[in-house]
């Protein structure tokens, strides 16, 4: 992932972003023809690893710090609506089971893979990776966008502050803000992965058929997407990230508590259980846009932001390995392990968010004690740019 984002700074970002977009679209189709777990897993790792961090980096390259989260939320909301659509597609495509001698699950891979390939081929023509390459912007408009990005700290004022080095790579990977961000990402990826794979089963336990369960997964995803956009909108408006991360985590805690409490007697608590499922998605989907925006806002210059976002999302997604293995069939319908681990990691994430807020606030307060004139008298612009977010003129986003 780090390599994908690093190369995105050197070559045309949209091709780094969407070449893997079209190519991994072949994976579902390959699943129809391929046999063997190792081959399928290897192809997924090679072809899909750079997609999401590359997309986040491109979006972050266009917008000032306090206009970023709602844009990331719009992008991430596509994941929520794809989850809603997948339930509907699974309901419809299942009827093709046996057609032309192909199993229903293979039809799903073939159809969704073909759509992904087509989209991946078209997207490079539609996605503009940087303002400088936007043919529809005039020179004055490009200059205006560039100045906005420089004033907000997204871009350096000199080339000195925006160079890659292996030292920068390793320093970024152990940066305390990135490490805390990874824990925050785990608070999203663990319950998110768990619900993505178990929601249909949980809903089915409410007494609905498999087909009805697939359809009933749609409203939670739609509500989650709307919550993500609203959270991003208000976070950008208030220029404040932390409440819009801790808030959804609190909603998610309530949702999991409701689901665990009423799971002992599902049949008599169908409305409460379904509301719990909806609340869980409302809590999950605002998290990753907020965490990505908060971490990206506090990393500078663009090389460090690129590396930091890639490492955040790569290490953060390791939580999915946990999330997909904690809702154990033998523990149905209460799933004490699944709910217990999810509740614990969410509490840890909320604590880390509060700790990060305090540390950033304390740093901003210390920097505010020095005047800009005093700082500029001591440091040149090149030296300030080389410091990145450690510059005494840099103000952290809370």
UniProtKB/TrEMBL annotation:
| Membrane topology term | Multi-pass membrane protein
Where does this protein reside within or beyond the cell? Membrane
Give the highest taxon in the source lineage.
Eukaryota
Q: Does the keyword Ribonucleoprotein apply?
A: no
Primary subcellular site in the record, as a coarse category: membrane
Q: Where are the transmembrane segments?
A: 75-96, 108-128, 176-195, 242-260, 272-295, 307-328, 340-361
Task: Tell me the GO molecular function terms.
Answer: transmembrane transporter activity
Q: Is the Oxidoreductase keyword given for this protein?
A: no
Q: Which GO terms describe its cellular component?
A: membrane
Q: Which UniProt keywords apply?
A: Glycoprotein, Membrane, Transmembrane, Transmembrane helix, Transport
* Protein name according to UniProt: Major facilitator superfamily (MFS) profile domain-containing protein
Q: Which organism is it from?
A: Fusarium oxysporum (Fusarium vascular wilt)
């Amino acid at each position: 992932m780090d390599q994908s984002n690093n190369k995105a700074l050197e070559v045309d970002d949209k091709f780094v972003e969407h070449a893997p977009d079209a190519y991994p679209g072949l994976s579902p189709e390959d699943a129809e023809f391929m046999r063997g777990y190792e081959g399928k897993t290897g192809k997924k790792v090679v072809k899909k690893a750079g997609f999401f961090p590359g997309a986040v980096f491109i979006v972050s390259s266009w917008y000032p710090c306090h206009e970023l989260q709602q844009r990331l939320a719009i992008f991430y909301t596509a994941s929520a609506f794809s989850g809603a659509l997948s339930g509907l597609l699974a309901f419809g495509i299942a009827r093709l089971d046996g057609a032309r001698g192909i199993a229903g699950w293979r039809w799903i891979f073939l159809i969704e893979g073909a759509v992904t390939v087509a989209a991946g081929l078209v997207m490079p023509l539609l996605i503009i990776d940087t303002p400088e390459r936007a043919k529809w912007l005039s020179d004055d408009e490009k200059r205006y966008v560039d100045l906005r990005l420089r004033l907000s700290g997204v871009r350096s004022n000199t080339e000195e502050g925006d160079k890659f080095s292996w030292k920068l790579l390793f320093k970024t990977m152990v940066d305390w803000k990135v490490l805390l961000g990874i824990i925050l990402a785990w608070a999203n990826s663990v319950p998110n992965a768990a619900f993505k794979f178990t929601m249909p089963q949980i809903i089915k336990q409410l007494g609905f058929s498999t087909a009805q369960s697939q359809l009933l997964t749609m409203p939670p995803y739609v509500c989650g997407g709307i919550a993500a956009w609203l959270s991003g909108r208000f976070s950008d408006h208030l220029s404040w990230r932390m409440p819009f991360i801790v808030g959804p985590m609190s909603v998610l805690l309530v949702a999991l508590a409701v689901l665990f409490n009423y799971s002992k007697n599902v049949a008599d608590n169908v409305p409460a259980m379904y509301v719990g499922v909806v609340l869980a998605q409302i809590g999950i989907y605002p998290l990753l846009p907020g965490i990505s925006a908060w971490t990206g806002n506090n990393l500078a210059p663009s090389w460090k932001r690129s590396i930091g976002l890639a490492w955040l999302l790569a290490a953060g997604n390791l939580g999915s390995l946990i999330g997909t293995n904690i809702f154990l069939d033998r523990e149905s319908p209460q799933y004490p392990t699944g709910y217990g681990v999810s509740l614990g990691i969410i509490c840890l994430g909320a604590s880390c968010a509060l700790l990060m807020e305090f540390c950033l606030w304390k740093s901003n307060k210390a920097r505010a004690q020095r005047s800009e004139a005093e700082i500029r008298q001591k440091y040149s612009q090149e030296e300030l740019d080389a410091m990145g977010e450690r510059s005494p003129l840099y103000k952290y986003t809370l």
